[in-house]
Amino acid sequence: MPVPVPELGSYNFVPVTKENLDWADLVTLDFSLYGTPEGNKQLAKTLIKAVHEDGFFYVKNFNISQERVNRQFSIGKQLYEIPLEEKLKYVPQGLDEGAFNGYVPAGRRIVEPVSGLRDRIEVYNIPKFNGDFRHEHPAIIQEHLPEIEEFARSLHTEVLDPLHRILAIALELPEDYFKNIHKYDLKSEDHLRYMKYTKFTPEENAKIGRLWVRGHTDLGSFTLLFRQPVAALQIRNPKTNEWKWVKPQDGTLTVNTCDALSFLTGGYVKSTIHRVAAPPKDQEHVDRLGLLYFSRPNNDVRLTTVKDSPVLQREGYTENDFEKSGNPVPTTEEWTFAKQKWQRTKNVFRGDESFSTAQILPGWNEKVHEGCKRIRTNT
What we know:
The chain has 379 residues and is of the alpha+beta class. Helix content is 29%, strand content 19%. The protein has helices at residues 37-54, 66-79, 84-87, 139-143, 145-170, 177-180, 202-207, 259-264, 310-315, 321-325, 332-343, 353-356, and strands at residues 28-30, 56-60, 102-104, 109-112, 117-118, 121-127, 191-197, 211-216, 222-226, 233-236, 243-245, 252-257, 274-277, 288-294, 348-349, 359-361, 364-365. It comes from Grifola frondosa. This is Clavaminate synthase-like protein.
């Protein structure tokens, strides 16, 4: 029998934390400036500081209403309320080999080896709507698929295309340089994600050191994170190695830069190290729902350092780690599935350094990204 589709209803965000957290000081790109030569130049100056120094920043006035965002959160909420046995029908074939579109159940990682406590992260990934991917989803997703498609495409036209253009201007490249290697109609492994972190008890949080996900980098170009008032995201300051909390800002997107952009710029664009901590005590009692979009270059793009940027030439960023090692530089597709396979490794326990430093491809090994381990929740 078909599963009945509930009404979306409204999505109620939890109150922001009242704790005095050690917030990161991040820049904001105001897209109301976008579209004029002077405005684009100003945005490029702001963006280049963000991607070279922090790798995390905010975007506001990006022409997608809060109502549309809230509806996506409502879809995600309804998705995670359907029975587990229904969600398990949508686990991708080849999950252990790096496949990722569809439902990824919680519990694949051991976060506390003594007690055997496992992660409580559920993921549902929806690929591009460009004709390269099958779309078979639970009823709540299928019912709203046209709206989800419109939302995902809007993220390209209203957020990613401007970011790619501004980055090209900042690196003194032709303005369509990055847009041309991130075309929506060509195959790439972009996806929209609904993500649920089910809470741990205070006692369980103490056992796992109040850390839900260890420090890591994302594998693509840009990751877009919609405002989530449950404070948990932290980034590592590249200069001091201290962890800072990322503050939820009203009416903004949080954006981080990722591995592929770092490879394409010889390391000039930072692939930001970030992690997920247990929420502060006044938010510890709720589950955390995330809405994200992962942008990646088109699959056939080879991740060699851009040779035509005067900025990269002047600053000496002319080779990435693959080029320095003398190993073949992978295409985006090769890189994506190699790192996804590593990410999806089952039954890894926290602290397994052989996993944390494993070779993804010849010329690239993962690194331990913990730095300063302090998690400060109040003063």
